[in-house]
Amino acid sequence: MPEAVLCGTKTTEQVVAIVDELAAITTEPRLLTRLTDEQLAALAPTVVARLDDDRLSQTAMLNGTLPQRAGRVVVVAAGTSDAAVAGEAARTLTFSGVQCQTIVDVGVAGLWRLEARLDEIREADIVIAVAGMDAALVSVLGGLVAAPIIAVPTSVGYGVATGGTAALHSSLASCAQGVSVVNIDNGFGAACAAVRMLSLLGGPAS
User: Fold this and answer.
1) What is the distance between the alpha carbons of residues 151 and 44, in angstroms, rounded to a whole number?
2) Per residue, what are the HEC states of 120-135?
């Protein structure tokens, strides 16, 4: 599994010390998640030059990516409001050497948009479904796609959906058989679950 540093729950000083040490002792790829703007700004320019940073997902790759591996994952997000969590999943997959595609804004409020992308989604070995509000996209995909589905409920919503609890409960109670569910907003965890599944395919990408 990829080694990652969760930055958001650490102080800026702690992140700077950790990343400085990693940059000094290894050229192996490392992933930084939940890296805040303040933490990024505090890193030395020589370290930043070795980072592939993405502000939407708040992820950064130090020293590139891991070797390519077999398999393909499609990350499907219900709305553009879910894009940051979907981006965390996609960036973790890319870092892990997994071929991935992100499809955004195909939630149940516009089923025709999902129908238009079904052929692409069905080509995936694994589908990561990212959705807030009622997370209905998870069950819809479960009824349309044969591949394993990993659901990521997001904290996008208001009223009873505030904080993502409704999306989490909806995903856990899905009528679609065999859907796996990770924690709220845990795009990283969903991607790591997909990497574990793809390891069963074995070998590098052809």
Assistant:
1) 37
2) HHHCCCEEEEEECCCC
Q: Which domain holds residue 41?
A: 4-62
Per-residue pLDDT reduced to its tens digit, 186-195: 999 999 999 9
* Tally of domains in the chain: 2
By DSSP bridging, strand 30-33 and strand 59-62 are antiparallel
Residues 164 and 108 in one domain: yes
Place of tokens 């499809």: 103
Nearest to 92 by CA among 127, 59, 130: 59
48-90 pLDDT, tens digit each: 999 999 999 999 999 999 999 999 999 999 999 999 999 999 9
Which among 96, 92, 182 has a CA at the least distance from the CA of 131? 182
What is the Cα–Cα distance from 74 to 102, expressed in whole angstroms?
Answer: 6
Question: What's the predicted TM-score (pTM) here?
Answer: 0.93
Residues 93 and 19 in one domain: no
